[in-house]
Amino acid sequence: MEVFLGIDIGSLSCDGVLIDSHGKILAATVVPTGARNLEAIERVRREILQTAGLSEAAVQATVSTGYGRDRVENRLAAVTEITCHARGIQALYPDTDILVDIGGQDSKAIRLDRQGGVQDFAMNDKCAAGTGRFLEAMARALQVDITELGGLDRGARDNLTLSSMCTVFAESEVVSLIASGTETREIVAGLNRAIASRTASLVKRVGGDVNALNVAMSGGVARNGGVVRAITAVLGRPLAVPDNPDTVGAFGAALIARQRFKGTAGHQT
Amino acid sequence: MMKSYFDDLVSGIEARLAEDPENRSPRKVYALEVARLGQRLYGETESVAWCGVTAPFDLLAAMGVTSCFVEFVGAMLAATGMEGAFLEEAEHAGYGGDTCGYHRAVLGAARKDLMPVPDFLIATSSPCTGGLAVMENLARHFEKDLFVLNVPQEASDAGVRYLADQIRDMAAFVADHTGQRLDPARLRQAIDNTNRARTLLEEAYQLAQHVPSPVTGRMMGNFGVVMALLLGTEAAVTVARTYRDAFARRVEKGEGGLARENLRLLWIQNRIQFKNPLIEMLEKDFGAVVVADELNAITWEAIDPDDPYEGLARRAISIPFNGQGRRRVDHLQKMAASFKVNGAINPCNWGCRQGTGARGLIGEGLKAVGVPVLNLEVDCIDSRNFAEGQLRTRLEAFAEMIAGRPSPWH
């Protein structure tokens, strides 16, 4: 059996997707990157093959992506997460015009063509405001688990505006708001709207008028229902969110591995 | 310290060039002349003028003045990895860390006595008012006289006459400070050198447009803007001829600067001045070569040696950074077409209104002719703010994107 592996090593998580020669997902895994990304990469390889019941020899080609893409050994190629996320989402939602991807330290909007190619993209500036790291810091300030954050905005009156999106200043502001007795749901809704506003700016840079466009979202932050709702509200468009948004990049990488392997002698570097 | 640095640099480059005198690297010949300029600036034997970018350096050369625009100091410090201490010095004095790194470095260098004391200063209102403010600041710091050339935005007859008259006044100002009148014969010779260099540069730029291009990404970085400092001298002619000849040889043999030229890129404004691996990464991983830089272009006509003032004025007005953003977009569109580029990179130098202010217009303008633009957010001087990983991802993704589409020029 011929299989192809995509590994997306990001700042927060290392994701792997294994596909067969038809592009069907055989196994997927997500592990924390931690401080030692080589260990995370090996763990992904081990777990994903174990889940699929296959040996390393079955992997015809591996493509790596994410900020640690050059650290992955025995790869056919390293491809940026922009290209991989575009490819992955196009396979899941072929009508996607714009993909919003918010990961651990990057947020981006990608304009796609119908083949999953990138037409244009815009990324956050150097600051990581509005990314997974930002939300981690806010969850810490609110003293809640990051996985709970997505539902805490429910019932908010949506009248709170945060004055800063700098992670440090926003954390201080959240602490001050808690101290002044502001309800948690209002704070979380304010955070979500701030993220949505920044995201909408990226989307409009690549998409202009998005009224007739199909928008999807990937990356770990897409698991946060509150952020998804806020972006939906700001854009005025529904967001297509896959069941496993954090493995879209790895899926795209696996698809590229399959395509490139068929177009080459399959030499891995 | 700087004098010995430039002395070492000059002797080192001379030794390298002497190893193979028949195949002199144009970049090294250029670097040698720039290093010699540094030697003169710090030599304490010649009259020195700190200037704005569009000052008439050939006229100053004809008057025996060694002159240089102040941004050169920032670029030099960054290139040698020394900028940090000088940026900090400026920041300690209250200059904001998000203002132009070129100017912060210069102000820090002046405060730490790294800049030679000028005999006078000549500011220009173009290309940026930030630079003008720095010149005013330096004039106060050095307690020297400042002459300001107010460059009009349009090359109308009245505008050209207005600037030409100012340049005449500037010559009188310089003569008053050096005690030497302008020698018409020396001026004519300087203008002749400028015109010869101009012709050779125009030929070199045309050769660089060839597919594959004879240039590599590093060969022409910062070239056009710094070459202005050599105008009026025989050195300008030598450098321009060396480039022209080297490019002509490569084109004749059908050789590209890069063995495998897959993608052709246009670099907008100035390069990242400190050492970084990005240009090499683009070449090695993607066969993507920067074949054109925005300021590597001749935008002015030959100057009349018998009546040079209007020609000098027209040249200053003609630079793409002067006037409306539309002019800059037109210039970039023409460059994109003549160099047949697949994409353009705009570093959007932090704190620079030329770098960031027009990015939307430039992006739309180039997109209209089928050329995508990657906007980076880089402080081109301050390596302390360099986020290599983030920039690599953006550049790689951009290269992946344009590699997948046909050239807009086929």
Structure explained in plain terms:
The complex is a heterodimer of chains A (269) and B (410). Chain A contains seven helices and ten strands. Chain A is an alpha/beta fold and 269 residues long. Chain A has two domains: 99 residues, Nucleotidyltransferase, domain 5 (2-Layer Sandwich); 147 residues, Nucleotidyltransferase, domain 5 (2-Layer Sandwich). The C terminus of chain A is likely disordered. Chain B has 410 residues and is of the alpha/beta class. Chain B is 54% helix and 9% strand. The longest helix of chain B is centred in the middle third of the chain and has 25 residues. The relative contact order of chain B is 0.12. The mean pLDDT of chain B is 95. The chains are: A alpha/beta (269), B alpha/beta (410).
Task: Tell me the layout of helices and strands.
The complex is a heterodimer of chains A (269) and B (410).
Chain A: E1 3-9, E2 13-20, E3 25-32, H1 37-52, E4 59-65, E5 77-78, H2 81-92, E6 98-102, E7 107-112, E8 118-123, H3 132-142, H4 167-179, H5 184-207, E9 215-218, H6 225-235, E10 239-240, H7 248-263
Parallel strand pairs in A: 1-4, 4-5, 6-9, 9-10
Antiparallel strand pairs in A: 1-2, 2-3, 6-7, 7-8
Helix pairs in contact in A: 2-7, 3-4, 5-6
Chain B: H1 2-19, H2 26-41, E1 47-51, H3 57-62, E2 65-69, H4 71-79, H5 83-92, H6 101-111, E3 120-124, H7 129-142, E4 146-149, H8 157-178, H9 184-208, H10 223-227, H11 234-253, E5 263-267, H12 278-286, E6 288-293, H13 308-318, H14 325-338, E7 343-346, H15 353-357, H16 359-368, E8 373-375, H17 388-403
Helix pairs in contact in B: 1-2, 2-11, 4-6, 5-6, 6-7, 8-13, 9-11, 12-17, 14-16
